Amino acid sequence: MQTFILALYVLIWPLISLAIFAVIGIATVKDIRAAKRNKRELV
Amino acid sequence: MNEENFYQFSTLTVLALLVFFYGGTYLLTLLIKKKKENTDAFMVSNHQIGFGLGAASMTATWIWAASFYGAATSGYTYGISGPLHYGLWGALMILFIYPFGRRFRKLAPNAHTLGELIHARHGSSSQLILASSNILGSIISLMVNFTASGALVSVLSPLSFQAGVIIAGVGVLCYTLWSGFRASVLTDFAQLMAMMAVAILIIPAVMFALGGPQTLSEGMSLLTPEQANLFSMDAILNQGAPFFVAVLAYAIGNQTISQRLFAVREDHIKPTFITATIGYGAIVIGLGMIGLMALMTGMEPIGGDMNNLIPQMVSMYLSPVFIALFFILVIGSLSSTADSDLSAMSAIVMADVYGKNIAKNKPDPTKMLFIGRLTMIVATLIGVILASFSMDILIMLVFVGALWGAIVFPVIASCFWDRITNTAFTSAVIAGLVMFCIARFELLPLVGVVGGLFELLAAVGGGVVLGLMAFGFCGRRVGLVFGTLCAIALAYFSIGFLRDYTVLLASLMAYGVSTIVCIAVSLMSSSKFDFSQIDQKVINYDPAKPAAKG
């Protein structure tokens, strides 16, 4: 049990990073599309 | 020592990695480069940065090279809870600023710096206190990041420390100089994506290279009872609490954050800052786990230098490909923070110094842009020189931290309470800083009545920190009640105890004293401020760009 908890404690952070990686990536693609649609600059 | 203990890249390989990183980043900025940049866009883009780019930029800016080394050191020193006490409180700095950030945006939708808002509210002296502390903080940050580059390059290759410093300085300046904040935001996205991808790969790679979860389980026997405790008081008092106290100070005092508050689309502030909070926490705590794993395998840092922990673990257990990825991870983290510091300093000198105090709100946009770029060049030169000669200016960080602690209450109260005056603001900051120095450097012996009085003031400071956090999310009444109750509880527990933790005591005193003085001096005046004046005074400088609506 301790082994499982320790592994989870270490690996949960890269998993959360992966989720945020996906959220930011998808949101940025939407930002780019919205900027193109509205004919304005991205930044 | 290097050749024996760390993996060594050849000079050609490390130069190729640096050219790949900085060359690629520079090419990316060519996508947005304009022959004639807009002055306002150079400082805050178009006030319309989307959620994705905003969250990426905020996260990348807040992660610097010291984040990895600090989190790993915390994991190695305090055990199980160490990485949490480093990463969690650092992440909360991002979270706790956004309720106040929304108020800043509402009051001054066209602002470029927080100093401009304070200038409109109080005048030059208060604004320049904020601006000068920001510039000092950013110079120190630049120096630390360039130093990290020099150290990394010299440890992993035959190149010298100075070569690493100069390459980072020139590389960052090249891609930031022309488009300023716009370049910073765009490159932050690419850098963060790279950093996250590397962190996602490296953390499990190190764990399985060590022998997997079973090795960690066996390594638990090497931990002291305090290190094995998730609620270690040692970790809380020495690592967590001083960080927690700094949560609001660093968020309020740092222009890199307020610049992004003014740049992100107003309705995206909340999701942007919440995502950045989680992203920062996950990456930094995750890399802190490498320090914990080093402790669990009984590894000793070379030369007793904790900064060697992560490079040592990566060198010992991973293949050269992963070491190259780690190299990119550190260069990406330090570059994203350094370009944000350059953009922050240029905005402060352009808006706070030239725009408000020299040109008196009627600046020449071309001259303003030139001043911003010149600021970047001078700041890079200073950062490179300080880093190259390994000058010990980190003591200045103590004063900057204290100054930021002392300005938290006056800045926030100035945006919500119409009775705060310029005299109250400046006298509060000065009093807070003076009392901080007395406690921090023990200029008076922390015994007897003096010790007790200081602990009481620190308890007030603790109540102010917690009360402001509650106020940000739950409103004035909850903030007042919660802050008062916390101050009373802290007074009960801290008398006769807190004097043994001078860093924590002094930091809390800066908050407490500045708050008491700010309120007392404000109450002596009957003047009331009309907040609608701020929007009229904080303007766009370049007529080519339409003003944002409040």
TrEMBL record, chain B:
The lineage of its organism: Bacteria, Pseudomonadati, Pseudomonadota, Gammaproteobacteria, Oceanospirillales. Its main location: membrane. This is Sodium:proline symporter. The chain crosses the membrane at residues 6-28, 49-72, 84-101, 128-153, 159-178, 190-210, 230-252, 273-296, 316-335, 368-387, 393-417, 424-441, 447-471, 478-498, 504-524. InterPro entries: Na/Glc_symporter_sf, Na/solute_symporter, Sodium:Solute_Symporter. Belongs to the sodium:solute symporter (SSF) (TC 2.A.21) family. PANTHER family: SODIUM/PROLINE SYMPORTER-RELATED (PTHR48086), SODIUM_PROLINE SYMPORTER (PTHR48086:SF3). Coiled coil: none annotated. It comes from Vreelandella andesensis.
